[in-house]
Amino acid sequence: xxxxxxxxxxxxxxxxxxxxxxxxxxxxxxxxxxxxxxxxxxxxxxxxxxxxxxxxxxxxxxxxxxxxxxxxxxxxxxxxxxxxxxxxxxxxxxxxxxxxxxxxxxxxxxxxxxxxxxxxxxxxxxxxxxxxxxxxxxxxxxxxxxxxxxxxxxxxxxxxxxxxxxxxxxxxxxxxxxxxxxxxxxxxxxxxxxxxxxxxxxxxxxxxxxxxxxxxxxxxxxxxxxxxxxxxxxxxxxxxxxxxxxxxxxxxxxxxxxxxxxxxxxxxxxxxxxxxxxxxxxxxxxxxxxxxxxxxxxxxxxxxxxxxxxxxxxxxxxxxxxxxxxxxxxxxxxxxxxxxxxxxxxxxxxxxxxxxxxxxxxxxxxxxxxxxxxxxxxxxxxxxxxxxxxxxxxxxxxxxxxxxxxxxxxxxxxxxxxxxxxxxxxxxxxxxxxxxxxxxxxxxxxxxxxxxxxxxxxxxx
Length: 461
Prior knowledge:
The protein is of the alpha/beta class. Helices cover about 45% and strands about 10% of the residues. A 5-stranded parallel β-sheet has the order 2-1-3-4-5, sandwiched between helices. A 5-stranded parallel β-sheet has the order 7-10-13-6-14. Helix 18 (about 410-425) crosses helix 19.
């Protein structure tokens, strides 16, 4: 996140009743980039403040009072996903088996080699991080897609991605809605040194203000009414990986200072926790708004803007890279034919010509929706013009008859109706999203829809 002093590989708790063991392990781990806490007794390790924000634990087996095995069992009840390494000078096959059955990540005998211990710890924290990412991905049901292109504008984007990806610089993706900013963010992540670590995508505009802190930073069980279990926030899930903040212009003013603090200091507290959690996150942001204008008007913090705008990449709309329409359409055809179980041999030439002549106000998202609909409707072996929506056919008619029509009022009315229908299609019929694409509020959109006799749309989605 641009601040080397705050970067950490994770926070590790060392539990051992012998001071020299605690001190030597603490020194070793600190030199390797870990944040270290220590406890002489198991009961101290079970204190809530000690467990807050932990990534892993290394514990002795035989200690006064609560043993390492009992500590392990209690930890698995309190923090089931927390990896625990048991390190002991009193090892045996029976004790090793018992510890592994109780949920230990690994059982190591003293004196364990430094390299072996570090490798095991790194593997434990990596698997724990991936587990959090998988849980997050399952919860959102998302699927990763590769962005495609062959046009000159697309090649220029790829060159900028290749320049930015190997660094840890914050990237700001700018472009109209539906241009594929998240897919490009994923491409940056896959091309970076963090490619094998989590990628977490967040739509800032979809999170209610009162849930922002819990969504971004997480909470402890019982922290507030309805908090029935621990929750890992998005920053925590993205630790050592990439966090993608989509529609960052929608970030509430009250939340901007909290995000800035995490980006500058690399720490935060979950709701209900008193100890800080350290995170190392590479940030990619995206917006279709004019952030500089928002800064000038006071709606967006200037210091946060500077923090996220280290490397800006402008994503051109699809109408400026029409050479990519065929490649994208073919990819979507393969995707949706597989989902629907249809056997389609491709896209007919007439259909391709119609797709290339359309201006795509909803960009790649609209093209994807059009191909999905066409695949569902198509009855032939290839995609034919019949399966395309009315607004794309209308462009063909308008192009054919343009020289014969000079009535300005009628032309403007026809174009207004076409843009409205395109926006509705790009937004999957959701009025709120269509209004945002058009740059009007929902009330004005309702007026225009009534004016043109259009009833499509769902205002409550």
